[in-house]
Amino acid sequence: MTFTLDAALAARRFEVSLSLAPGETVAVLGPNGAGKSTLLSVVAGLLRPDTGRSEVNGRVLFELGPGVHTWTAPHRRGTALLAQDPLLFPHLSALENVAFGPRSAGVPKREAREAARHWLAEVDAADLADRRPEELSGGQAQRVAAARALAVDPEVLLLDEPLSALDIHAAPLLRRLLKRVLAGRRAIIVTHDVLDAYMLADRVIVMEEGRITEDGPTREVLRRPRSRFAAGLAGLNLVSGTVTPAGIRSGEGLEFAGQHDAPLVAGQAGVAAFPPSAVSVFLSEAHGSPRNSFRVTVTDLEPHGDQIRVRAGELSADVTPAASADLGLAPGLEVYFVVKAAAVSIYPS
Amino acid sequence: MYTGIPRWVAAIAAVGALFVLLPLAAMLGRVNWQQFIPLITSESSLTALGLSLRTAAASTVLCVLFGVPLALVLARGDFPGQRLLRSLVLLPLVLPPVVGGIALLYAFGRQGLLGQTLEIAGLRIAFTTTAVILAQTFVALPFLVVSLEGALRSAGSRYEAVAATLGARPTTVLRRVTLPLVLPGLASGAVLSFARSLGEFGATLTFAGSLQGVTRTLPLEIYLQRETDADAAVALSLLLVVVAVVVVGLSYRGPAPAGSGGRPAHSGVPERVPA
Is the ipTM here above 0.90? Predict the structure, then answer.
């Protein structure tokens, strides 16, 4: 009961082979023009590859090649698409938008509306049922669009950068909501944000120039990146642990204070994220803010652009070559990493 | 508000507007108001007006019936010969109507391409009310196609793609998404077609003749009256102008603002402040 895809499309230099287990969510990362959206269009049936084969739960979506020509139209695929732009039908209310899928499947009007109310409630948008799309904010519209996609109970849910058009207040809310509704659901999520991959996906694939260059469990790929793109993404310091009143306590007992949009509930799991450029390196305990100062052992030094990336276990810091020389940094040296709380983002996961 | 219109452009626009309005005003000055009501309520006038309204309504229905699929195929399709098809469909826009009438005669007339077949089936088209409707449809169809194709193109196909991934069959997508989105474009196209049908003269005269009560529409009646009774012709002309202005004024809301594609204003751009 899996989803498999093999597809090649010469005009877009696209050649991808992919499979998803039931209930598995895969994040697709990659630079612009890498073919991420092409991948979704091919799965959804909006774009026809030159050759290839795709199957979901034993049902052939397409099989194209010499002598074979099987093609399932988009509306028979069960691959609902949630795009960056909510694309709510402007002439229908939020409720009718969500009821659109069930209605198209032949569900009677009344039952379709019941289902729509259920899914609107699932995305905390029950009170928006009678609104017109033009009366919704970006975040509200995207929630309704998510309910609309979920209401058809898709075999594969396709998400094309669903958070990237949202402002910084609306995105965390929808991210948490997606985490809830994607649990146990087969989905492919194209994203620019490594945090989406961390929080929403079981597995990450990295696409570059129309091909998959990395494929593996999210933490593996980001911890030991082989592709250049993943290496760039993996630069972000991510510390998972337990939420405390001030921030996150890591498994090693380090306390990270930071900024958060969502109310934090102490004891729940969470992630602290901050860029290496926000980390300063000192040889002795820093003065001033006592928080977010950690005694670490340098494990590695490597050039990173015109900076030196100082690695210390899971954490890394960027310093200038001059500062690195002044401090006499070398593997094995004990130093203090200091990061301003303002640069740390805390996310409950 | 800044409009960006240079003064000299506004001046030329005023001259252009005057050029359209002046002849109408001149005609208005020649109306014999004492005789106006008797002139427009004479039996021949009322017959012609009734025929004009009925045939224009019928040809508008035909325009919608054939124009919607044509516009869809031209806007959404991708097939060889698409550009050629578009040029051919739009040909009646640039063709002198009398030439259209002759062409129709050679297609549907007794001696025409289909005439004999139709004759055997017991159908005579030329010089009947049906001919009037066909002539009007022939010249008015491009107005609907152009107007609707533009609306379809600016609406884009992204909503339709989403609808399809939600499980909607192509016919469902057309009925529940495409047509509602381009309804304003369709309405203005239909109104333009109706107005064009109402004013049709050359093709009608050539293909349908001028038989009172059967094929003599209001424009033909006006042309006929002009020979004998100038007052009657002016009165009927005014009537035709009033009918056209009322119809267009009631239903034609002008081209949609740039970029909105004739659908209700919705930019799709997320707001910065969540409500």
Answer: no
